[in-house]
Amino acid sequence: MSAASCLLSEEELQCSICLDVLTDPVSTPCGHTFCKLCITETWRVDTPCRCPFCNEVFTRKPQLKTNIFISAMVAQFRQRAQPNVTQDHCLQHNKPLELFCESDHSCVCVLCSLQHQGHALVPLKEACEAKQRELQKNQAHTQRMIQDRTQKISEVKQSLELSQRAAEEEAAEGVNFLSTLMELVQKALDQVLQEIEEKQTKMKTEAEALIHSLEQEICELKQKSSEVEQLSRSEDHVHVLKTIPSLTAAPHRNRTRVTAPLLLGTVQSAVMKMKKQIQNMDPKPLSESQLMKLRRHAVEVTLDSDTAHPDLTVSADLKQVSRTGVKRRHLNNSRRITGYHGVLGRQRFSSGQLYIEVQVSENKEWVLGIANESINRKEAIYVKPTNGFWTIQLINGEYGTTDPEYTPLQVKSAVQKVGVFLDYEEGLVLFYDVDTAALLHRFTGCSFTETLYPYFLIGVTEMSAASCLLSEEELQCSICLEVLTDPVSTPCGHTFCKLCITENWRVNTPCRCPFCNEVFTRKPQIKTNIFISAMVTQFRQRAQPNVTQDHCLQHNKPLELFCESDHSCVCVLCSLQHQGHALVPLKEVHKIHFHIQRMILDQTQKISEVQQSLELSQRAAEEEAAEGVSFFSILMEMVQKARDEVLQEIEEKQRKMKTEAEALIQGLEQEICDLKQKSSEVEQLSRSKDHVLGNFPSLTAAPHKDRTRT
Predict the structure, then answer these.
(1) Which of 156, 289, 361, 495 is at a distance of 20 to 30 A from 140, taking alpha carbons?
(2) 3 φψ region: left (φ > 0), alpha (ψ -120 to 50), beta (else)
(3) Same domain, 496 and 384
C-alpha cells in the first residue's frame, strides 16, 4: 500500500485564536486544537474554562499536552511551505533569531521568548560580540597551553637524556666498585691462606726445636738423676758435700713456649681488614644538583629545652646549646635527659624525608643524629641503633659511629658542618660533610616504627678505666667465709661459691638467698659469673705472687718430708694422706732427687703437649683454610650477584622511566594536536558571524589535564 499524503493546507492548520499556523499544538477534550500558549492564556483570563471554538464548558481545567501527531504535520507543512528557511530563523515560528537566552544558551525568536520568561535574554548581536571576545581569550589560553606542553615535551626528553647519562655513570661506578671489591676478596683469600701456612710453618719449626731441646734436657736430667741415686747410697759424707753443689746447679731454663696460632681469627681479621679497605674507598661526593635535591627537604630545627640535661644551656632562640659545667635547676620532667649530656629537637618526624644542617666547628666533642622518642633518658646508655640512636660522633679527636659496634670513620679534614638526611619509609639515614659534600656514614635498612627526633650531645668526657681489684673481704663467700670459688650470682644479686650455694639449696627448701633470705619459688639456674670470676683470679694472683717449688702447691706449706714409698716431697698436711708410707725428714739429696724427677716429668709432659698442640694446630689450620675458601667464595658470589642486581635494577628503572616518558610525550603530543585543531576552529569562527553561539560550548570545553610528571 503506497503512503498517502497527509499534508494539509495552511487554513486547516491555523489556530482559531491567533489565526496563525499552530505552535505547540494541543487538543481540548472536545477535540479542537489550538496553540498551547494561546489556549493557556485564554483560560487564564476567562473562567470557567471553555472551548473557544464550540464553547463547551469544562468543570475542571484540562491537562494539556502537545499533540505529537498534529505537531509533526505542522513541522512537515512548514518545511514544505518554506524550504529556504536559514539557521538565522526560528524553525518553529519562522521568525528571525534576534535574542540569546543565557540561561539555556540558545538563540530564540520573539515568540520563543514568551516561553523563556524569567530567563536572562540579551540581543543576539551583543551576545555574539561577547562570545567572540571570550573566544579570543580562550584562543590565547590555548596557545599558552600548546607552548606549555611543547616545553614539557622538551623537558621530558632532556630529563630522559640526563637520566640515561646518569644511569650509565652509575652503572659504570657500580661495576668499578664491585670489581674492586671482588679483587679485594680474592686478595684477602690469598692472604688468609698464606697467613695460615706461614703461621703453621713457624709453629712447626718452633715445636721441633723445642722438642729437640726438651729431649736433650731430659737426657741430661736422667744422667744427673743417676748420679744423685748413687750419691744417696754413699757413706762418704765428704764426697757427698763436695758433689752436691754441682748437682744443685740451676737446671736448664724452659725454652720459649710454643703456642698454637689463633687461626680461628684469621678469617675474621682478613674480613675486618677488607672492611677497612672498603671504607677507605672514597665514595663519590655529592654533586651540587644532588645536594640541592637534599636541601629541598630541609627543615629548621629548634632545640627542646625541656629535654636538655641540667648541665646544658639552650640559647634564647633555641638554636644553640652549650655545656658550662654549672648544673642548673630545672623541672625534672619525664622528658628531660639526665643520664647523659644530650638534648632533643622540637621537631618530630614519623613519615617522609627531612634534611638538617648542624654547625659543629666550635665543639671539640659531639654526637649528633636521629633518636627514637622512647629512648632511655634517665640512665647512662650506649648511643647505638639497638638503643634507638642513629648517630655519628667526634670523641677524643676521632670521628666514629656505632653501627652496631664502634667503627672509626675515614675523615680527611676537620668537619665544620654536618648534613643529616632521613628517609623514614626507606629506613635510611645519611651523614654528609656539607663543605666537601663527602658522605661520612650511612645507616640503611633501618626499621623505623615510632616518632623520631633530632638528637645532639656535646662535651663528652673520656672516662678512665677504674681498677676493679677488691679486698679479700669483698670477695668472700658469706657461706664458707673463704674467697669465692666458681662464683655464681643469685637473682637477688648476691654472690656465693657455686658448691656452697648448691649444697645450701640441697639441704634447705624452698630455695632462698642465705644473705637476704629472699625466697625463690623456682630453683634458679646458676652459672659462673665470668666477670666476678676474673676479679677473683686477679685477686689471687695479686695476693700470692711468690709461691715457689719449695712449698706445697695445694696447701702453700713448706715441703718438709720425703715419702720413700711414692718418691715425693710432701708438707705436713699432705702427710695425713700418706699414712702407712715410709716418711722421713727431707734431706738435701732427697730434695735434689725429687726436683730432678719432677723436671723430667714436666719436660716429658711438655713434649707431649707440644706434639698434641702441633697436631691440633695442623687440623685447625686445615679447617680454617677450608672455612676461608668457603667464606670468601660465598662472598665473591654475593659480590657478583650484587653487581648483576645493581645493573638489573638500573636497567629496570631506566626502562620504566623511558616507558613513562614516552607515554607522557605521546599524551602531550596528542593534546597539542587537539589544541591546534581547536585553535584553528576558533580562528575560523572568530572571523564568522554565524555559528559562534552554537559552537561556543564545544570550543570552550575544559582542556586536558596534565599527565604525571616523569
Answers:
(1) 156
(2) beta
(3) no
Phi, psi for residue 66 in degrees, rounded to 5: -60, 130
Note whether 424 and 339 are same-domain residues: yes
Same domain, 383 and 448: yes
Which residue range forms the structural domain that includes residue 104?
Answer: 25-121
> How does DSSP classify residue 363?
-
Strand order in the sheet with 568-570: 568-570, 561-563, 583-585
Asked if the peptide bond before residue 48 counts as cis, ω within 30 degrees of 0, the response is: yes
Cα(49)–Cα(60) distance, integer angstroms: 8
> pTM (2 decimals)?
0.38
User: Does residue 30 lie within any of the structural domains?
Assistant: yes
**Domain-embedded: residue 262:** no
Quote the number of domains for the chain: 3
Domain boundary among 523, 538, 553: 538
- The stretch 100-125 carries a mean pLDDT of 84
Least confident of 131-135, 549-553, 586-590, 605-609: 586-590
Give CA 176 to chain center in angstroms.
26
Cell of 536: 677473683
Residue 425 lies in a domain: yes
3-state SS assignment for residue 391: strand
In the numeric block, the cell 589544541 is attached to: 675
Cis before 524 (ω within 30): no
CA distance 149 to 155: 10
| HSE-CB of 239 using CA atoms within 13 angstroms | 9
Here the cell at position 685 is 569562527
The conformational region for residue 623 under phi > 0 = left, psi -120 to 50 = alpha, else beta, is alpha
CATH number at 368 reads 2.60.120.920
The answer on 496 and 448 residing in a single domain is no
For residues 418 and 395, state if they share a domain.
Answer: yes
pLDDT tens across 635-692, in order? 888 888 888 888 888 888 888 888 888 898 898 889 889 888 888 877 777 666 555 5
Start-to-end C-alpha separation, the chain:
69
Beta bridge partners of 421: 355, 430
